[in-house]
Specification:
By secondary structure, the protein is an alpha+beta fold. Helices cover about 30% and strands about 25% of the residues. A six-stranded antiparallel barrel has the order 4-13-16-15-14-17. A four-stranded antiparallel β-sheet has the order 1-21-20-19, covered by helices on one side. Helix 2 packs across helix 11 and helix 5 packs antiparallel against helix 6. The two termini are about 15 Å apart.
Length: about 500
């Protein structure tokens, strides 16, 4: 093929500027201006080089378009029409096209519309692993942590019912063991001293009226004595103290406040010489013969626990041997800080080995059942939706919605969505999930763009045989040439531009 090069200049067309004088020797300015300027045949060298470069780019782009058009025409048939959707493309022509997926296996018949293909090399690169869905025997054990606490039914706060001053303090530090009836402190109260004097007066009056024959006076004296006794009882004066008052006949200077039961002092807010009032707490006592083991479980685990179920209590620091006790109470509320439900069991502590606020482990043993389970790490929980990524045959992956029950250890019991024998992705599932979302977005974009009929070309990440028949590769390649290049190819400034096009292969 011969083609004239427009960049070679005609030597005969060159102007001999040396043979033409520019002007006469100094015969006047008018005659010098009348000499015509020298003529140049052809464009200046810079413009000539620029036009040639544009023409070269246009020829290269046109050649690429012709080559792509010839390949597309071989896949479309003799008539040049696009193949029908679903028809297979020529493997020889598809093999040389960039981006084609040659390693994709046949699409499994169970794969849905969202299935995506990932090559084995890429699976190994991102670390994709899968596990089968199967049946396992689940014990249903709930293991949680808790603390020992005081028995709230065996604790008390000590208050005085009269105002006065602390004369004597018998229990003077926190943690001191006390017994029932043991004195805690003595308080002097002017009001109590007056009440004792009134009682002694009513007692003497009754004795005097008992000797008279008038029954009305005797009844009045009895009523006055009873009223005085009830007044002192309301001020927490015991019957023993009243009997001591009757025996001595003298008001006590101070009233002694005693412990109501055996226990220990939890809090002491009273000091010698302090002025106390009824609203002040003087002591707080607790009976440690029984102690509570309080545990916490998550909300989804609380429904499995019932009052009367046996729990094992373990002491991680060896304070005592392992014990078992029934659940005595399940609290009706949820802790707002931990979002857990509390329950408690009562433990015998007459040996005083257990101490409040000790950390413990509680184990609840449920019934052992065989269930269809799925690994917890395989479930992607978005809140309103839970789904897994199925690992299908041939390197395909598909998202599948599932319904699962409360977790049992490292597994979820399956309610619906997957069957026994299915394989689910357990690692790198978020990368696979992003791949499926990306391919879904690309397919949606292709459907909405006019003229995007992809015929039978296999794009990376899609199944083989996808419809890509609507892409005009020849025009697409030809459209890559600039309008300026097309203009230079059509006008007559380029010598022989049509002849080389006819001589190129495929024209």
């Amino acid at each position: 093929m011969t083609m004239e090069n427009p960049m070679i200049e005609d030597p005969h067309a060159a102007v001999d500027t040396a043979s033409q004088p520019c002007c006469e020797p100094h015969e006047g300015a008018v005659r010098a201006l009348s000499i015509p300027p020298p003529e140049f045949h052809g464009p200046p060298p810079r413009r000539r080089i620029t036009g040639a470069a544009v023409l070269a780019v246009a020829l290269v782009a046109a050649g690429a378009g012709v080559l792509a058009g010839s390949r597309l025409s071989r896949t479309s048939g003799p008539s040049g029409a696009s193949p029908k959707p679903g028809a297979s493309a020529d493997p020889g022509a598809m093999a040389s096209m960039p981006g084609m997926n040659h390693s994709a296996q046949a699409r499994p018949p169970t794969a849905g519309a969202k299935a995506v293909y990932i090559s084995p090399a890429r699976q190994q690169l991102v670390g994709v692993r899968s596990a089968p869905v199967g049946r396992q025997r689940i014990e249903g054990t709930v293991r949680t942590v808790g603390m020992l606490a005081y028995d709230e039914t065996r604790s008390a706060q000590i208050h005085t019912r009269v105002s006065g001053w602390v004369e004597q303090l018998y229990v003077d530090y926190v943690g001191k063991p006390v017994h029932r009836g043991q004195p805690l402190f003595a308080v002097y109260s002017p009001d109590l001293a007056t009440a004792q004097a009134d009682y002694l007066t009513a007692l003497r009056s009754r004795r005097q009226m008992a000797e008279t024959a008038n029954p009305d006076l005797a009844a009045g004296a009895d009523a006055l004595l009873a009223a005085s006794r009830d007044r002192m009882r309301r001020w927490n004066v015991t019957d023993e103290q009243i009997a001591e008052l009757e025996r001595t006949g003298q008001p006590a200077h101070a009233m002694t406040i005693s412990s109501p039961f055996d226990g220990v002092v939890l809090e002491k807010m009273t000091f010698a010489g302090q002025y106390v009032t009824p609203e002040m707490t003087s002591f707080k006592l607790a009976d440690l013969s029984t102690i509570w083991a309080v545990g916490q479980v998550f909300e989804y685990e609380a429904a499995r626990l019932h009052v009367g179920d046996t729990v094992d209590i373990e002491f991680p620091y060896g304070q005592a041997a392992k014990r078992s006790a029934p659940i005595a109470f399940i609290y009706p509320d949820v802790d707002p800080q931990t979002r857990r439900v509390r329950f408690r069991a009562a433990l015998d502590n007459r040996d005083r080995k257990l101490k409040p606020d000790t950390y413990i482990n509680l184990i609840w043993h449920g019934e052992s059942t065989e269930q269809l389970v799925i690994p917890k790490e395989a479930v992607i929980d978005t809140g309103p939706r839970k789904y897994v990524l199925l690992a299908l045959a041939g390197g395909y992956f598909e998202p599948r919605d599932v319904e699962v029950g409360p977790p049992l250890g490292e597994f979820y019991p399956v309610v619906s969505g997957v069957a026994e024998g299915d394989r689910v992705v357990t690692s790198a599932q978020f990368l696979v999930d992003s791949e499926t979302n990306l391919m879904a977005a690309m397919q949606a974009m292709m459907l909405t763009m006019p003229g995007m009929d992809m015929g039978n070309m296999d794009m990376p990440g899609t199944e083989p045989g996808a419809d890509m028949s609507g892409v005009d590769m020849g025009s697409a390649a030809g459209s890559g040439a600039s309008p300026h290049s097309h203009h230079h190819m059509q006008n007559g400034s380029s010598n022989g531009s049509a002849a080389p096009m006819r001589d190129m292969p495929g024209m």
